[in-house]
Design goal:
The chain is an alpha+beta fold. It has one domain (about 5-110): Aspartate Aminotransferase, domain 1, CATH 3.90.1150. Helix content is about 40%, strand content about 25%. Strands 1-2-3-4-6-5 form a six-stranded antiparallel β-sheet, covered by helices on one side. The radius of gyration is 13 Å and the shape is globular.
Length: about 120
Amino acid sequence: MNAGADATAIRELALSFPDAREDHPFGPESHVFKVGGGSRMFAILGDGPPVVVTIKLTKEEREIALTFPFVSEAKYVGRYGWVTARIEDADCLQAALEWLRESYWLRAPENTREAAWA
């Protein structure tokens, strides 16, 4: 896998969502994606290697995701429903991109979600 290309795919998808923006509150190596005007995070990207992405999932989706060997409970925020996925191959990347969409949907304000899918 190409770590740079994987990180780029995640960043491009994250920034394609309405009202999404990138911030670096934890330093330049942690790319935090937020939605809305406040501090609502929906993903944290680490460029790696390996590339890792931390996302929020529903309880049901989190339980399924944690059965994969490349997914673990996120440090510090895991108790709030966040997981971290290591991007090891194309299948990991595709799963992470789907979870990124879900995380955005869960964290975006209702009016932003409505505008995104109108």
